[in-house]
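Supplementary notes for students who missed Thursday's class. We covered one full example, reproduced here. Read the sequence, then the structure, then the short commentary at the end.
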Amino acid sequence: MKFINEDFLLNTTSAKILYHSYAKDMPIYDFHCHLSPKEIAENKRFKNITEMWLAGDHYKWRAMRSIGIDEKYITGDASDKEKFQAWIKTVPYTVGNPLYHWTHLELKRYFNYSKVVKEEDWEAIWETCNEQLQLDTFTAQQLIKESNVKVICTTDDPIDNLQHHHTIKASSLTAKVLPTFRPDKALEIKKRGFIAYIDELSNVVGNAINTYDDFLEAMESRVHYFHEVGCRISDHGFEKIVFEETSMEEAREIFNRAIKGEAISQLEEAKYKTYTMEYLGSLYHKLGWAMQLHIGALRNNNTSQFDLLGPDSGYDSMNDYSLAQPLNKLLNMLEKNNKLPRTIIYPLNPVHSELVASTIGNFQSNEIKGKVQLGSAWWFNDHKVGMLKQMTDIANIGLLSTFVGMLTDSRSFLSYPRHEYFRRILCQMFGDWMEKGEVPMDYEFIGSIIQDICYNNANNYFTIN
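Structure (token representation):
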């Protein structure tokens, strides 16, 4: 039997029926990713498989470092062919890591390469992939079409002019490709570069930002601009959630001191973030947006490598922190003023999964199905065990049937088999419950829940359509 066969990860009759009859052909709603709008707008054709598959993929980079591959062949000046050889040398040793499954799925689905990846076959794989990359099916837009993707939400800074999104909208691509508002740099008041960022924001809006009031007006202006272009989702990345009661007057004073270059304490930082998040959350609610909170990435931990390579190079990890009180207080602050938007919470540390699953039940709505969500298993958790834990925690404490499902969180156009991977795991979980008699052997009903989680819930949750 081939390694990647039609029943891969499906170990019961029920799981196979659920996957092949209900999940397999559902469209993809990719509401969080890091694809380049520029590459989509230009309908990029990649020069070789290394550029398409390895560039920017810190998952692969970390694996290569772990078996002792020299940095020259990862992010260094080695040729693309040498970097590809180094990656294929690594693949057999990723067994047990989701990279092993993803790699084989991507080679199978896009290049019809069915063999188990072995180091000695690296050159044959290189030639096979690069030959097919010359076909018209391997442009950025065609890959989106071939992958049955209906909606893509990229990740965009408030100062972005979104010109590539305008170009995409005018193209023949049928999938909707929309921006997501990611204002992290505007929240990080203590970080180096904050003042320079405020200057950039000022240039974009065409007005001087001398006060906190000016800043809030500028942010609101950018939110409305994003809304006009089709944005309906915001995204925030926090090392940890903070909450401190404060007032507009205090927030003004903290901001005004910060842009003068004065030192800001951690308490003042927390107050600034709290009031700014209240302001932004209220604005998202008013416009009908969803708000994503990605919590718990401890970034750039290897300073020598950060100095050489910069951010997003594979030197981030999970953080540990106290989450329950600040998260509940943040959501409650918005809820009590009837300004809580649809909210998806992604804890990076899996010990917080059940905590968040219990928190979301505090803030549901009788108007929106699954208004507050425990987001899909993210980053270090988007493997089989992590996905099963995340879905089991929702099922045990909330309602799994309302879950908006999987996303790629990727920079690669070859990452859509991650949805297939998730769907197979989802169907195996439900199929196992069926076989054990824990849920009824009702394929039509359970199948409809599977389809909701795969696509329908997201399609109904976000106000994009």
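Commentary. Residues 266-287 form the longest helix (22 residues). The chain has two domains: 13-46+137-461, 47-136. If anything here is unclear, bring it to office hours.
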